[in-house]
Amino acid sequence: MSSGKEYIDQMLQKYKVLMVSKSTSPDGTKAQVIFDHYRFDKGDYFFIDIDKRADCDEIEQYLKELSGTSTVPSIFIDGKYYGGADDLIVGQKLESFDQRLKDAGIKFDRQPMH
Asked: What is the pLDDT of residues 38-50, one digit of tens each?
């Protein structure tokens, strides 16, 4: 069985957009609501709920190494740390999140938020 670090590295290589969070995180829920308005090509986006993993603590420690923060969600675009929920909320409003996706060559369709 691979370590939590290896698992995250594999997911970062496999998916163009990755969100790592906990089901108990209010910020994770906010971010997921925003992501629900994006349609990515099949296989480009993946969500990991680390609450359900035995290596949750190890993954959290590794996320801190990658991002400099221990809060979730952690959002990655093209293998690079983008930010957390607040960054996503602001980026989505200013469309800088959309631009970052485009710059990474990620195809998506954004549904209007009500």
From this structure: 999 989 999 999 9
Tokens coding 30: 């906010």
Distance CA 109, CA 21 (A): 23
pTM score above 0.70? yes
Q: How far apart are CA 114 and CA 106, in angstroms?
A: 24
Coil vs helix vs strand at 53:
coil
Type of residue found at 23 = S
Q: Read off the amino acid at residue 108.
A: F
The domain 4-101 is classified under which CATH number: 3.20.20.140, 2.40.37.20, 3.40.30.10, 2.70.70.10? 3.40.30.10
